[in-house]
Design goal:
Number of helices: 13
Strand order of the largest sheet: 1-2-3-6-4-5
Largest sheet: 6 strands, mixed
Radius of gyration: 20 Å
Helix content: 55-70%
Shape: globular
């Protein structure tokens, strides 16, 4: 039996197996180097992006052989290889899992060797949705069971597209599976995705600074946030979008500019910084809710 026939057999058998509605399937893992880590099935693990040697060593210890990233950030292929791990990069957005990705996820889940670790950035939204689709495709999960897993993982209700992908799951056809080429180690991503990755990294730095009470203030993080928003405003993707989108983006720029100004103050005012950071976060969240979390 060739690999395609094997995958098709797994998908067909899985579709015939009744899932357990509402069952909470996953077990939290004790893995300090990995964020939001779970064992979901005997072969599939889910969690946040592995960062640093300790994280990849932890995955190898758990028996992982393949890492599937659904995040827009470029995977650290060199660090994975150091520990004998293979990377597959299949990024998705917050608006749901496209049909062609379902077939690619089914193929990845059916790889014959070792455990598979699926991750997004923090391991709470896109990664769990990808795992749910993999389990619906290859492990006989019902939509109800898949949704129970999203709830357990902490997937936010605001990502309606991710929930819709598991509720309305359709197994990939033989033709769709046949169209799947070699799964990429590093996918080519559009500039807007790269910009979103950079923005997320800036927000992570600023969240850590806020958690410390702004004692270790990364003034450059707010400046980088502002510059990333300005660069995003100049992309072809932005010029093709609606005036409403550009207005949201301009609002986010102004909020980031105010945050950078407060961070440059001597001495910085923690209360003012909290308020400015909250405003920046709310501005970006409003834009995401309208333009990123749903297909438009």
């Amino acid at each position: 039996m060739n690999h395609l026939s094997r995958i098709l057999a797994i998908v067909l058998v899985s579709a015939a197996v009744p899932g357990q509605a509402g069952e909470t399937p996953a077990t939290p893992l004790t893995a300090p180097a990995l964020e939001h880590a779970y064992r979901v099935t005997d072969r599939l693990l889910s969690g946040g992006q592995p960062v640093g040697d300790a994280a990849f060593a932890e995955l190898a210890r758990l028996g992982v052989k393949t890492i599937v990233s659904v995040d827009g950030a470029k995977p650290d292929v060199a660090a994975a290889r150091k520990h004998g791990l293979r990377y597959i990069h299949l990024p998705i957005g917050y608006d749901g899992v496209p049909a062609e990705r379902v077939a690619e996820f089914a193929r990845a889940a059916a790889l014959p060797d070792g455990q598979i670790y699926v991750h997004c950035h923090h391991g709470k939204h896109r990664g769990p949705a990808a795992v749910a689709v993999m389990c619906e495709a290859t492990a006989g999960w019902s939509p109800a069971r898949a949704e129970a897993w999203l709830r357990q993982a902490g997937t936010a209700d605001e990502y309606a597209g991710l929930y819709r992908s598991v509720r309305e799951f359709q197994p990939p056809s033989a033709a769709a599976l046949a169209r799947v080429g070699e799964l990429p180690e590093v996918a080519k991503t559009p500039p807007v995705v790269d910009a979103m990755v950079a923005l997320d990294e800036c927000f992570d730095l600023l969240k850590a600074a806020q958690k410390s009470g702004w004692k270790a203030t990364p003034a450059n993080a707010a400046t980088l946030l502002l510059e990333q928003l300005r660069e995003l405003a100049r992309t072809d993707d932005t010029t093709r979008r609606s005036a409403d989108y550009r207005t949201h983006l301009a609002d986010s720029e102004r909020a980031a500019e105010a945050l950078a100004r407060h961070l440059r103050a001597a001495p910085p005012d923690p209360a003012a910084l909290d308020a400015a950071f909250r405003a920046a976060g709310q501005s970006c969240a409003a834009c995401h809710k309208t333009f990123r979390n749903e297909k438009r």
